[in-house]
Amino acid sequence: MGLFDKNKKFTGWLIVHIAQDCIYVTSIKRSPSTKPLVEVAARFSLDGTTSSDALPRLAKELRAERYGFTNLLTTNEYQLLSVEAPNVPVDELKTAIRWRLKDMLDFHIDDATIDVLDVPLDKNAGNRNHSMYAVAARNQVIEQRQTLFSEAKLALRVIDIPEMAQRNIAALLEPEGRGLALLSFDTEGGLLTVSYGGDLYLSRRIDVTLEQLQQTDEDQRKSCYERITLELQRSLDHFDRQYHYITLSKLVLAPLGATETGLLEYLTENLYIPIEALNLETILDCSKVPALRSLDVQQAYFLALGASLRPESVAS
Predict the structure, then answer these.
(1) I need a labelling partner for 120 at 20 to 30 A (CA). Which of 59, 73, 147, 223 fits?
(2) How far, CA to CA in Å, does 294 sit from each of 38, 63, 259, 298?
(3) Alpha-carbon distance 221 to 261, whole Å?
(4) Which residues, at least 6 apart from 171, have a Cβ–Cβ distance to it below 8 Å?
Protein backbone atom coordinates (compact mmCIF):
# COMPACT_ATOMS: atom_id res chain seq x y z
CA MET A 1 0.00 0.00 0.00
CA GLY A 2 1.27 3.46 -0.88
CA LEU A 3 0.64 6.60 1.07
CA PHE A 4 -2.59 7.41 -0.79
CA ASP A 5 -4.36 4.15 -1.63
CA LYS A 6 -7.31 4.72 -3.97
CA ASN A 7 -8.07 1.14 -5.01
CA LYS A 8 -11.20 0.46 -2.99
CA LYS A 9 -14.30 2.37 -1.91
CA PHE A 10 -16.19 1.85 1.34
CA THR A 11 -19.70 2.82 2.33
CA GLY A 12 -18.22 4.35 5.47
CA TRP A 13 -14.83 5.78 6.39
CA LEU A 14 -13.29 6.59 9.73
CA ILE A 15 -10.26 8.83 10.13
CA VAL A 16 -7.89 7.97 12.96
CA HIS A 17 -5.51 10.69 14.17
CA ILE A 18 -3.14 9.41 16.88
CA ALA A 19 -2.08 12.35 19.04
CA GLN A 20 0.26 12.50 22.03
CA ASP A 21 -2.27 11.53 24.69
CA CYS A 22 -5.33 10.35 22.79
CA ILE A 23 -6.79 9.15 19.51
CA TYR A 24 -9.23 11.32 17.55
CA VAL A 25 -11.72 9.56 15.28
CA THR A 26 -13.97 11.33 12.78
CA SER A 27 -16.33 10.58 9.94
CA ILE A 28 -18.04 13.03 7.60
CA LYS A 29 -20.86 12.43 5.12
CA ARG A 30 -20.75 14.67 2.07
CA SER A 31 -23.69 15.85 -0.03
CA PRO A 32 -23.62 18.07 -3.13
CA SER A 33 -26.52 20.20 -1.88
CA THR A 34 -25.77 20.70 1.83
CA LYS A 35 -22.83 21.29 4.14
CA PRO A 36 -20.75 18.17 4.93
CA LEU A 37 -22.29 16.43 7.94
CA VAL A 38 -20.02 15.40 10.81
CA GLU A 39 -21.36 11.98 11.81
CA VAL A 40 -18.59 10.90 14.20
CA ALA A 41 -16.18 12.90 16.34
CA ALA A 42 -14.88 10.73 19.16
CA ARG A 43 -11.88 10.92 21.46
CA PHE A 44 -10.21 7.87 23.00
CA SER A 45 -7.79 8.66 25.81
CA LEU A 46 -4.52 6.74 25.88
CA ASP A 47 -4.21 7.43 29.64
CA GLY A 48 -0.84 5.73 30.00
CA THR A 49 -1.65 2.98 27.50
CA THR A 50 -0.43 2.67 23.91
CA SER A 51 -2.36 3.09 20.67
CA SER A 52 -2.17 -0.68 20.16
CA ASP A 53 -4.20 -1.05 23.39
CA ALA A 54 -6.68 1.68 22.49
CA LEU A 55 -7.45 0.66 18.90
CA PRO A 56 -9.27 -2.61 19.81
CA ARG A 57 -11.44 -0.65 22.27
CA LEU A 58 -12.14 1.89 19.53
CA ALA A 59 -13.04 -0.89 17.11
CA LYS A 60 -15.54 -2.40 19.55
CA GLU A 61 -17.25 0.85 20.55
CA LEU A 62 -17.62 2.16 16.98
CA ARG A 63 -18.44 -1.20 15.35
CA ALA A 64 -15.45 -0.64 13.12
CA GLU A 65 -16.03 -3.62 10.84
CA ARG A 66 -18.39 -1.38 8.86
CA TYR A 67 -15.65 1.07 7.92
CA GLY A 68 -12.53 1.58 5.90
CA PHE A 69 -9.86 3.49 7.81
CA THR A 70 -7.60 6.43 7.03
CA ASN A 71 -4.67 7.23 9.31
CA LEU A 72 -2.83 10.55 9.53
CA LEU A 73 0.93 10.54 9.85
CA THR A 74 2.55 12.95 12.31
CA THR A 75 5.08 15.59 11.29
CA ASN A 76 8.17 13.55 12.17
CA GLU A 77 6.99 10.45 10.29
CA TYR A 78 7.40 11.76 6.72
CA GLN A 79 9.03 14.42 4.57
CA LEU A 80 7.20 16.64 2.08
CA LEU A 81 9.58 17.93 -0.59
CA SER A 82 9.09 20.23 -3.55
CA VAL A 83 10.74 18.87 -6.70
CA GLU A 84 10.74 19.75 -10.37
CA ALA A 85 8.30 17.55 -12.26
CA PRO A 86 10.25 15.11 -14.49
CA ASN A 87 9.34 14.95 -18.16
CA VAL A 88 8.45 11.26 -18.21
CA PRO A 89 5.31 9.16 -18.88
CA VAL A 90 2.92 8.83 -15.94
CA ASP A 91 3.82 5.19 -15.33
CA GLU A 92 7.49 6.18 -14.88
CA LEU A 93 6.82 9.18 -12.64
CA LYS A 94 7.43 7.61 -9.24
CA THR A 95 10.66 5.98 -10.43
CA ALA A 96 11.92 9.33 -11.74
CA ILE A 97 10.90 11.12 -8.53
CA ARG A 98 12.62 8.44 -6.45
CA TRP A 99 15.86 9.12 -8.34
CA ARG A 100 15.59 12.86 -7.65
CA LEU A 101 14.93 12.32 -3.97
CA LYS A 102 17.89 10.06 -3.27
CA ASP A 103 20.11 12.94 -2.08
CA MET A 104 17.32 14.95 -0.43
CA LEU A 105 16.13 12.52 2.23
CA ASP A 106 17.58 12.05 5.70
CA PHE A 107 17.45 8.26 5.18
CA HIS A 108 18.33 5.88 2.34
CA ILE A 109 16.03 5.99 -0.69
CA ASP A 110 15.71 2.18 -0.68
CA ASP A 111 14.02 2.48 2.71
CA ALA A 112 11.40 4.97 1.45
CA THR A 113 7.75 4.72 0.45
CA ILE A 114 7.10 7.49 -2.08
CA ASP A 115 3.97 9.22 -3.37
CA VAL A 116 3.55 12.38 -5.43
CA LEU A 117 1.19 15.37 -5.47
CA ASP A 118 1.00 17.39 -8.63
CA VAL A 119 1.02 21.18 -8.58
CA PRO A 120 -1.02 22.23 -11.64
CA LEU A 121 0.76 24.26 -14.29
CA ASP A 122 -0.37 27.74 -15.31
CA LYS A 123 -2.57 27.26 -18.38
CA ASN A 124 -0.87 30.21 -20.06
CA ALA A 125 2.69 29.10 -19.27
CA GLY A 126 3.22 26.88 -22.29
CA ASN A 127 5.29 23.77 -21.70
CA ARG A 128 7.67 25.13 -19.08
CA ASN A 129 8.63 22.89 -16.17
CA HIS A 130 6.53 22.91 -13.05
CA SER A 131 6.80 21.66 -9.49
CA MET A 132 5.44 18.63 -7.70
CA TYR A 133 5.37 17.62 -4.08
CA ALA A 134 6.91 14.30 -3.15
CA VAL A 135 5.86 12.60 0.08
CA ALA A 136 8.44 10.21 1.51
CA ALA A 137 8.06 8.02 4.59
CA ARG A 138 10.27 5.27 5.90
CA ASN A 139 9.05 1.80 4.93
CA GLN A 140 9.32 0.86 8.59
CA VAL A 141 6.82 3.58 9.58
CA ILE A 142 4.30 2.41 6.98
CA GLU A 143 4.74 -1.24 7.90
CA GLN A 144 4.36 -0.52 11.62
CA ARG A 145 1.16 1.43 10.97
CA GLN A 146 -0.25 -1.38 8.84
CA THR A 147 0.59 -3.91 11.55
CA LEU A 148 -0.97 -1.72 14.25
CA PHE A 149 -4.30 -1.62 12.42
CA SER A 150 -4.14 -5.22 11.25
CA GLU A 151 -3.70 -6.51 14.81
CA ALA A 152 -6.75 -4.46 15.85
CA LYS A 153 -8.66 -5.96 12.90
CA LEU A 154 -9.20 -2.54 11.34
CA ALA A 155 -9.17 -2.14 7.54
CA LEU A 156 -6.48 0.50 6.98
CA ARG A 157 -6.79 1.62 3.36
CA VAL A 158 -5.33 5.13 3.26
CA ILE A 159 -2.37 6.78 4.96
CA ASP A 160 -2.65 10.56 4.70
CA ILE A 161 -0.70 13.63 5.79
CA PRO A 162 -1.76 16.84 7.61
CA GLU A 163 -1.07 19.08 4.59
CA MET A 164 -3.73 17.28 2.57
CA ALA A 165 -6.19 17.30 5.46
CA GLN A 166 -5.78 21.07 5.74
CA ARG A 167 -6.08 21.43 1.97
CA ASN A 168 -9.47 19.70 2.14
CA ILE A 169 -10.78 22.31 4.58
CA ALA A 170 -9.31 25.14 2.50
CA ALA A 171 -11.19 23.82 -0.54
CA LEU A 172 -14.48 24.62 1.25
CA LEU A 173 -13.31 28.18 1.92
CA GLU A 174 -11.81 29.19 -1.44
CA PRO A 175 -13.60 31.97 -3.33
CA GLU A 176 -14.04 30.98 -6.96
CA GLY A 177 -11.06 31.92 -9.09
CA ARG A 178 -8.86 32.95 -6.16
CA GLY A 179 -6.41 31.24 -3.86
CA LEU A 180 -6.59 30.88 -0.10
CA ALA A 181 -3.98 30.65 2.67
CA LEU A 182 -4.88 28.64 5.77
CA LEU A 183 -2.86 28.66 9.00
CA SER A 184 -3.29 26.19 11.86
CA PHE A 185 -1.46 25.34 15.09
CA ASP A 186 -1.29 22.27 17.30
CA THR A 187 1.16 20.55 19.62
CA GLU A 188 3.50 19.85 16.69
CA GLY A 189 3.70 23.48 15.53
CA GLY A 190 2.19 25.68 12.85
CA LEU A 191 1.16 24.67 9.34
CA LEU A 192 0.61 27.14 6.51
CA THR A 193 -0.97 25.90 3.29
CA VAL A 194 -1.90 27.82 0.16
CA SER A 195 -4.42 26.24 -2.17
CA TYR A 196 -6.14 27.18 -5.39
CA GLY A 197 -8.84 25.29 -7.25
CA GLY A 198 -8.72 22.60 -4.60
CA ASP A 199 -5.02 21.90 -5.18
CA LEU A 200 -2.15 22.37 -2.75
CA TYR A 201 0.38 24.88 -4.09
CA LEU A 202 2.48 25.71 -1.05
CA SER A 203 3.13 24.24 2.38
CA ARG A 204 5.32 25.63 5.16
CA ARG A 205 5.93 24.45 8.72
CA ILE A 206 6.28 27.09 11.44
CA ASP A 207 8.20 26.23 14.59
CA VAL A 208 5.68 27.63 17.06
CA THR A 209 3.30 25.36 18.99
CA LEU A 210 -0.21 25.98 20.24
CA GLU A 211 1.06 25.90 23.81
CA GLN A 212 3.52 28.69 23.04
CA LEU A 213 0.71 30.81 21.62
CA GLN A 214 -1.35 30.28 24.77
CA GLN A 215 1.40 31.03 27.28
CA THR A 216 0.73 33.82 29.77
CA ASP A 217 4.03 35.68 29.41
CA GLU A 218 3.17 38.58 27.10
CA ASP A 219 6.73 39.20 25.88
CA GLN A 220 7.31 35.57 24.97
CA ARG A 221 3.93 35.41 23.25
CA LYS A 222 4.73 38.54 21.23
CA SER A 223 8.06 36.99 20.21
CA CYS A 224 6.10 34.04 18.82
CA TYR A 225 3.82 36.42 16.92
CA GLU A 226 6.86 38.09 15.36
CA ARG A 227 8.35 34.75 14.25
CA ILE A 228 5.04 33.70 12.74
CA THR A 229 4.57 37.00 10.93
CA LEU A 230 8.08 36.90 9.47
CA GLU A 231 7.58 33.35 8.19
CA LEU A 232 4.20 34.27 6.72
CA GLN A 233 5.65 37.32 4.96
CA ARG A 234 8.45 35.25 3.45
CA SER A 235 6.14 32.43 2.41
CA LEU A 236 3.46 34.65 0.88
CA ASP A 237 6.10 36.71 -0.98
CA HIS A 238 7.56 33.49 -2.35
CA PHE A 239 4.10 32.36 -3.42
CA ASP A 240 3.46 35.67 -5.21
CA ARG A 241 6.73 35.32 -7.15
CA GLN A 242 6.25 31.64 -7.96
CA TYR A 243 2.53 31.76 -8.78
CA HIS A 244 1.96 35.34 -9.90
CA TYR A 245 -1.11 34.25 -11.88
CA ILE A 246 -2.97 33.32 -8.67
CA THR A 247 -4.53 36.07 -6.56
CA LEU A 248 -4.80 35.25 -2.87
CA SER A 249 -8.11 36.28 -1.36
CA LYS A 250 -7.21 36.07 2.33
CA LEU A 251 -5.43 34.25 5.11
CA VAL A 252 -7.72 32.16 7.31
CA LEU A 253 -6.66 31.33 10.87
CA ALA A 254 -7.88 27.91 12.02
CA PRO A 255 -9.48 27.57 15.47
CA LEU A 256 -6.93 28.05 18.26
CA GLY A 257 -9.28 27.19 21.10
CA ALA A 258 -11.31 29.39 23.39
CA THR A 259 -8.23 31.09 24.88
CA GLU A 260 -7.72 34.46 23.20
CA THR A 261 -4.09 34.59 22.07
CA GLY A 262 -4.08 37.95 20.27
CA LEU A 263 -2.56 36.38 17.16
CA LEU A 264 -5.46 37.34 14.90
CA GLU A 265 -5.18 41.00 15.88
CA TYR A 266 -1.40 40.98 15.50
CA LEU A 267 -1.50 39.45 12.02
CA THR A 268 -4.23 41.86 10.94
CA GLU A 269 -2.03 44.79 11.92
CA ASN A 270 1.17 43.47 10.33
CA LEU A 271 0.22 41.67 7.10
CA TYR A 272 -1.03 43.17 3.85
CA ILE A 273 -3.52 40.36 3.22
CA PRO A 274 -7.01 40.22 4.82
CA ILE A 275 -7.13 37.90 7.87
CA GLU A 276 -10.16 35.94 9.08
CA ALA A 277 -10.73 33.55 11.98
CA LEU A 278 -12.40 30.23 11.12
CA ASN A 279 -15.31 28.68 12.96
CA LEU A 280 -15.88 25.20 11.50
CA GLU A 281 -19.64 25.51 11.96
CA THR A 282 -19.68 27.90 8.97
CA ILE A 283 -18.58 25.10 6.62
CA LEU A 284 -19.60 21.88 8.41
CA ASP A 285 -22.93 20.64 9.77
CA CYS A 286 -22.06 19.83 13.38
CA SER A 287 -25.63 19.17 14.55
CA LYS A 288 -24.88 15.51 15.39
CA VAL A 289 -21.84 16.48 17.46
CA PRO A 290 -22.85 19.52 19.56
CA ALA A 291 -19.45 19.53 21.29
CA LEU A 292 -17.99 20.94 18.06
CA ARG A 293 -19.58 24.29 18.87
CA SER A 294 -16.60 24.73 21.21
CA LEU A 295 -13.50 26.27 19.62
CA ASP A 296 -11.34 24.11 21.88
CA VAL A 297 -12.95 20.99 20.45
CA GLN A 298 -12.70 22.34 16.90
CA GLN A 299 -8.98 22.89 17.38
CA ALA A 300 -8.46 19.36 18.69
CA TYR A 301 -10.36 17.71 15.82
CA PHE A 302 -9.22 20.09 13.08
CA LEU A 303 -6.87 17.79 11.14
CA ALA A 304 -9.00 14.69 11.64
CA LEU A 305 -12.03 16.51 10.25
CA GLY A 306 -9.95 17.75 7.34
CA ALA A 307 -8.83 14.21 6.55
CA SER A 308 -12.49 13.14 6.62
CA LEU A 309 -13.13 15.55 3.75
CA ARG A 310 -10.74 13.90 1.29
CA PRO A 311 -12.58 13.28 -2.02
CA GLU A 312 -11.88 9.54 -1.93
CA SER A 313 -13.72 9.37 1.39
CA VAL A 314 -17.05 10.17 -0.26
CA ALA A 315 -19.29 7.12 -0.04
CA SER A 316 -19.80 5.41 -3.36
Answers:
(1) 73
(2) 14, 27, 11, 6
(3) 8
(4) 195, 198, 309
